Amino acid sequence: MDGDANGAEFFGQYRTSQFGVGVNVSQFDLDEDNVTTTLLGEVSPTPDATLAGFLQDDSEFDGTTYYGSGSLDVAPFQANGFFLGNSDTDVTLFGLGGSYGLTQQLSAQVDFASYLGDDAPDLYSITFGGAYEFTEGFSADLNVGYVDGDDLGIDEATVFTFALTYEFGDRQRLDNSVEQRLEDDIATGAASALTLDF
What is the Cα–Cα distance from 178 to 42, expressed in whole angstroms? Predict the structure, then answer.
């Protein structure tokens, strides 16, 4: 990038231990007309369940990006689901997953992801694997997955993923915690093999 760029961001939120709402308006370059507006929400109807999502409009692109996620954590079981799409296309990525805690540190997990919609590719993935938590906030995930997508020329591919995660601090900004949920939903498990640009 040549030259100077200056941007601006406005973020506001109201958050309690049970719910939160927020808005983020940002402009990467004040010399351009491109403005991104994001509305966020998160609610925990019970201590074990969380629903979160956002709507994002970028003036440079058509359509509104939408994301929703839900999780239920009742030890030793954990289940989650999500969807991600754009209102300008009839394509939505969705995923379902779950895990079972074998011990306090070791869990087995399974994930499924696919696309829905008239314009969606015939593409899906399923993964099986496990996670090991070395200490609080530091863990490793190992998964093996199966991907099939005739529309994209993928015929029964096998995918291996390995991830190390280290987390610290408490995410207080709602946009950071919802963004982290999205990254967690699509970066590991079955969706990692299927993510297309929205």
Answer: 8
Q: Are 131 and 139 in contact (CB under 8 A)?
A: yes
Confidence class of residue 4 from pLDDT cuts 50, 70 and 90? low
Which two tokens mark 62? 């058509």
Average pLDDT, the chain: 84
Where along the chain do its domains lie?
8-193
Interval 63-99: pLDDT, tens: 899 999 999 999 999 999 999 998 888 888 899 999 9
Contacts of 10 (CB under 8 A, 6+ apart): 23, 24, 25, 26
The CA distance from 136 to 148, in Å, is 35
3-state secondary structure of 195: coil
* CATH architecture of residue range(s) 8-193: Beta Barrel (2.40)
Distance (Å) of CA 180 to CA 32, 69, 130, 172? 28, 11, 20, 12
Distance from C-alpha of 142 to C-alpha of 129, rounded to nearest angstrom:
6
Spatial contact of 176 and 182, defined as CB atoms under 8 Å apart? no
